Amino acid sequence: MTDLELIFSMLGEAATTEISRTQNAQGFSQNKVAAHKGGRIAGEAREKLEAETGGRVVSAENYLTEPESRRRLKKKEC
């Protein structure tokens, strides 16, 4: 995960938390609405940055070629 991917993930989480607190969200359905709003804020910010820079924020670095559990097993066997 790149620095920008981490930053935008953190923005979405922080926005969701703040929305949830200010609206005093109670229960799953109200928190779900807050989560969608927080995600939308981070998504729009990401899209604006991508439009301004002409590059992409999301990279292929997020995906592992093999599951973490298998990599750990191979390291232990060596």
Summarize the structure in words.
The chain is mainly alpha-helical and 78 residues long. The protein contains three helices and no strands. Helix 1 (3-22) packs antiparallel against helix 2. The two termini are 27 Å apart. The model has no long low-confidence stretch (mean pLDDT 88).
The main sheet comes to: none
Q: What is the share of helical residues? A: over 70%
- Low-confidence regions: none
Mean pLDDT: 88
Distance between the termini: 27 Å
Assembly state of the chains shown = single chain
Total number of helices:
3
Range of strand content: under 5%
Q: Which H/E pattern describes the elements?
A: HHH
Tell how many strands the DSSP assignment holds.
Answer: 0
The structural domain count equals: 1
Which structural class matches the secondary elements? mainly alpha
Give the C-alpha Rg. Answer: 17 Å
Shape: flat
